[in-house]
Structures
1.
Amino acid sequence: LSEWRKIAMLRDVFSTTSKTVPISIGDDAAVLDDRLVNVVTVDAQVEHVHFERDWLSLRDLGYRAIMTAASDLAAMRATPSAAVVALTLPEGFSDTDLEQLSFGQRDAAKILRCAIVGGNLSRGRDLSLTTTALGHTHAPLLRSGAQVGDTVYLAGEVGLAAAGLRQLQQGRRTGVCVDAWRRPCARMDVVPSLGAATAGIDVSDGLAQDLAHLALASHLRIELDGVPQHAEVLAFERLAGLPAYSLALYGGEDYALLVTSPLPLIGFVPIGRCVQGAGVSFQGTNVDAAKGFDHFAAF
Amino acid sequence: LSEWRKIAMLRDVFSTTSKTVPISIGDDAAVLDDRLVNVVTVDAQVEHVHFERDWLSLRDLGYRAIMTAASDLAAMRATPSAAVVALTLPEGFSDTDLEQLSFGQRDAAKILRCAIVGGNLSRGRDLSLTTTALGHTHAPLLRSGAQVGDTVYLAGEVGLAAAGLRQLQQGRRTGVCVDAWRRPCARMDVVPSLGAATAGIDVSDGLAQDLAHLALASHLRIELDGVPQHAEVLAFERLAGLPAYSLALYGGEDYALLVTSPLPLIGFVPIGRCVQGAGVSFQGTNVDAAKGFDHFAAF
């Protein structure tokens, strides 16, 4: 059976049983150590919606799927323990293609020290990857914890992936922006710095929309002063006739980390502050959250 | 934003924060009680592969998606704690449609005492539901634990859903078989009876294939004597010119529970035994596992 062969191949690639994952791929469900999981999130990457296959290699795509799912864990001050991956494979998707996809998933999972413990294969018209990331935190960081007086901090680039996406749509296949879109990075490296943080969210839909979520949940207003911009983003905005900062504010998929804190945080730069009121402003002007990146979202 | 409205609606339908689920829909990830989860499985229901929309109501579909995912937990001797649901919604899928789907998910989750704690919404060409079920077990039941001399036990109908699927494909829209396909039942009711069980699997791909998985994992041979058959299945097989028992052996999606045990188990009927060797036989004839239901599978 082709199905059995595919699953045996994935088991070889992910080979994930360990002391903390006694039962992995090959049974009806995976079994994990009792105290490994108290946070869960799911993310989907759907062909023709989130990506076109000629925009990135299958290995990039697998990598991207794991990282975008894990990013939500970082925003909760959690670290990843395990992931399950549900794949919809279209007609003509070969076992070699599946292997490339799984190599990318494995690459990302290794960096995150996250085991891929199971999944599901289905046929379907369009290629899609639905990744459930399981993690653990001792103190969840919520969207609702920001306090008036807190500073807003950012770790990571914003606007770079959105520039890359536009370049890909225009036919460009190389460059810093394209690479940023293809291989986002869940910011687990700064999770240990989040001790004093009061609220957090990852930037998947653009600063405007994600800050609006945070402001709404915390019942306050966020005033942005300015945002560090990569030279390539500024150059692309000029070339494309876009207003400066528009990609940072309204472009998604950077998976930077946005947090609020009364104290400075290592690895983060200050970009604004929490004040009384509602909504989000950028350099004194109200920002329209509805303009953010929208292909539906995690909930 | 239509996305925000959809997510607010789902939060209202699932409304799942509780003592054991402090953070549910509305943040970057859900937060669960520390000892709630040590088993995880994922299942997908994809339009044109697993179902056509005129075969069942959207409420049935939501119900079905939760039950098929949870069935894998029952087979591991686990009980469900929580689920996350990733939905791909095609053009024209209205908020009312989404509400109906979520009502079905809620119906099933209530029966299973399982919280729906988060998810993902994406656009896509075809409707699909990818459900990750999280559960807990004190003693996982594996496919590999069967012993020579054990009896093979079954809880639930086999062949009924396969007859229903064929009737739906032929245009029939009512009846016992059709209902069995539309509203499968994860057999959590018999999980407490599994104390003496040595191995388990749920019947998603037909007896032939699922018993072959069990025999292979346990390094033994399974001899089936006979299988209880619903009168409707026998009648349908006669009418369709199919060999008796072919739907039970080769038709999938009943989500009955198949276990091995040296002792009788309440709620189960004996259907065969474990002997030395390999493969599966039915009434003395070798069974071809490769003929089982195949639209890929969970791993």
Note: DSSP finds eight helices and twelve strands in chain B.
2.
Amino acid sequence: MKPAVIFRPDRKQEVVLVHFELSRTLTPEDLAGLAPPDLVQLGCAHLGVILSGRGPIWLYGFLIHYYHPCSYVAIYDPRLQGGIVVASHKPGCEPGDLIPYQTVNSQ
Amino acid sequence: MKPAVIFRPDRKQEVVLVHFELSRTLTPEDLAGLAPPDLVQLGCAHLGVILSGRGPIWLYGFLIHYYHPCSYVAIYDPRLQGGIVVASHKPGCEPGDLIPYQTVNSQ
């Protein structure tokens, strides 16, 4: 069965853009079965994460918490062509900072 | 000056609904100046939090991280009349669980 959420990670230097697409309408019960790229297991928790995709706020909420061990978590804003930091352990990287990231679509 | 985001916390038993309203269009720089109700300082980190309001995903992201020390964090869904848990330290309370919460508007 096709997963409810398909994740497409794309790394550039010290940041991973985690883009997601929904294969159907999500229900809250789907959160228990998600399998986002596990950066901790991959030894990549020192990287920053930018989340990108169309989905409910609670999906974003789940992913923000999931990537909490990473250097920082940002939300992609296509208008600003980058991620807006919402949480950070990285010195000098604060909520509200913009992490520039050019996606394939914006090139 | 009026704050960019006005928070209206509402407690019922062991959960606080943190509703917010924007007084103007937010920019990422606004995140640095936000003053959400500080449940840790109030000795209320043992409570759960339900976030509610219309705003950008990165505002939600900031608030989810901000309330990370609390028992759990959920996102209000008016259709389901409750909060959908996205992060939890509480045994038996998992992402995807619905925390029923009747707001004034839905009564």
Note: The CA atoms of residues 7 and 20 of chain B lie 4 Å apart.
